[in-house]
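ERR on first pass: missing label on line 2. Operator R.T. fixed the label and resubmitted. Corrected input:
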Amino acid sequence: MLSPLIAEKYGSFFNLARQHQVIFYYVGYFSQPIIAAMAEAVKLQLEVADVAGPTRRKLFSCFVEMAQNIIHYSAVSLTPQKQDNNELRHGSVCIRRESDGSFLLLCANPVEQDVANDLRSKLEALRVMTLDEIKQAYRQTLRDEAPLGSKGAGIGLLTVARDAREPLEFDFDVVDRVGQTPVFYLKAAI
Amino acid sequence: MDNLYIAPTPSTPEVDFKFDAHTLSLRGESYPENAAAFYGGIIGQLKDYLARLDGGNIEVSIALAYFNSSSTKMLFNLIEVLNTAVEAGNQVTLHWYHDEEDDTILEFGQELSEDFPAITFSSHSVRPT
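pass 2 clean. output:
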C-alpha cells in the first residue's frame, strides 16, 4: 500500500546517510560468515564506484581487520569469552566517502577496561610512528611469537596503520557507571 | 601419505597439497576467523610429509588475492618450514603470484625471498580479471 508517511517519518535517516556519503554501514553481531558476506558487499560497492585498485585493496584490508577485531575483542558477546572460533560479538562498522573523494573507515565496539588500556597504549605508540617505522614494526612482529592473549597475530592494528594515509585516530566514550564497559572507536583515513 | 585437499570458501583458500607429486598449492583468499586453527593442521601435515622426504624437489604455488594479518603470520610460518626442508637437503621452488596492482603482496613476497634465500623464488605478476 502506498504510504507517503514512511518517507516523511523515516526518510531523514536515509537522507542523512546519503549526505554523509555512507557507502556501507552495519551494526549488530559479527560472525565470520557475516563478515564474509559484508566483504562481498563492500568489494562490489567499491568496484561499482570505480575506486582505483590500490585504494580498493587498502579499504578492503582495513575493513576485514576492523571487523575481525570486533569478533575477537568486543565485550558484548553471545559466545563464551574463552571461545576462540565461531564467535558472535557486537559492534559496528562504517565506510564513508569524504568530499575530496577519499574514504573514512570507522568502527565502534564496547571493550573491557584492560583491553581498552592495551589498545590505548598500542595506538598512542602507532600514532607517532612514520610509515617506515610501522613497516619495520610489522616485519618484526611477523617474526616474533604471537603475543599471549592475541587471537590474530598482534599485527592487525599495524596492518590498518600501514594502509591508512594518516595516523589512526581513536577514542573511548566516557564511562559513567562502575562496571560499565567503554566503547572503543577507531578511525582510519584511506 | 595421503594428499591434502581443502575446498575453498569465501574466506579460506583452496589447499591442494599433492604430496605424491611434490606440488603444493594455495589459491584464493585467506581471512579465516582463526588463522592459527586453519593453518595449524595444514602446517602439521606439511611437516609430516617433509620429515619423510630426502633429496626431494618440491614445487610450491601461492596465488592469494588477499590475506589478512593473521594469515600473513601463518604463511610466514609455512615458508619457514619449507626453508628448513631445504636445509635438510631438499629443493623448494616457490611461485609467488601477486596482482600487478598489489604492492603489499609483491613486497611480502620480496621479504620472504630475502629471509629465506635457500628457497628458489619466482615472482609472477598477474593482471586483474
